[in-house]
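Reviewer comment 2.1 asked that we show a complete input and output for one of the modelled complexes. We chose the NDP case, as it is the one discussed in the main text.
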Amino acid sequence: MRAVVVSRTGGPEVLEVVERPEPVAGPGEVVVDVEAAGVNFIDVYHREGRYPRELPFVLGSEGAGTVRGTGERVAWAVVPGAGYADAVVVPEDRLVPVPDGVALSDAAAVLLQGMTAQFLAEVASPGDTAVVHAAAGGVGLLLVQLLVDAGVQVVATTSPEKAELARGAGASDVVAYDEVVERVREATGGRGAQVVYDGVGRATFDSSLACAARHGSVVLFGAASGPVPPLDPLVLMSHGSLWLTRPTLGDFVAERADLLHRAGEVLGRVRDGRLSVRVGGTYALEDAQRAHEDLEGRRSTGKLLVLPR
Ligand code: NDP
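Response of the prediction step:
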């Protein structure tokens, strides 16, 4: 079986397709034949060594497929090593069932980013105004839909050519990154946004603080443009007694009951047509490098998938 392996950290060129022995499940694990593996920014951080892992490792942590032997349709997320490969080993307690009516490729496309969008959306309340940066991205498009569905007004940022997608997801304003502070002030009568969602990081963080209302929340959930430098907590006071959080999905699905609940809600929305999933590109295992170049190069919209078969 083939897998995309990282044996030294670096740019997309370090990704190699390697022939490996068939995986063998240990106690409490199953082998899953992978139909689709999700491409996520954390794969970039792992590949670069920004989040260090023991080398060599199979890249990816999300996917969907069928359990070998039973044919059960399953998906998983936040399982490092269970990603870009023909077959993977997954602990049984990390698997979630994929409902009838949801394609395995859609399950792989939505699980990680959908559960992320879901816990992020819980920070805002109906009637709030929220800023969503990179709103035409994987997390972004899902987050805008969930917020709008919950009665939150969304001011979004995107590259200009992606603005229509963010509008289609329900954002009431879509602006360039350098216009967002001014636009949010206009849209809120000068008050600012109750919640600012920032997965871009270094390039947007200062404007995220400046967009937030007094007592508002800045939710820094990623670093697509690079990490935010260390900051003096007094900055939060000077911007209006802000709350700053830096959450990660793993902490919201650590308990099996939470994983099942969150996955059930996200996949149920997809099945019922209440959450639309945009697959922005699919790649063979051999083209995983290109998937990373597209994601990092801001050429992607929605979700990118690696399809081993
Ligand atoms: P996206 O599909 O959102 O891709 C990143 C987007 O960020 C780009 O398309 C681009 O959109 C925008 N961007 C702005 N500046 C830059 C830059 N300098 N370099 C690259 N991209 C830039 O990716 P994901 O949906 O996979 O992830 C979004 C963020 O969410 C990432 O930071 C990721 O780490 C984080 N994340 C966090 C999780 C958590 O648990 N905390 C879980 C999942 C994801 P545009 O062209 O419109 O500017």
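The pocket of NDP is lined by residues 40-42, 112-113, 116, 134, 136-140, 158-159, 162, 199-200, 203, 221-225, 247-249, 295-296, 298, 300 (CB under 6 Å). We note this here for comparison with the apo prediction described in Section 3.2.
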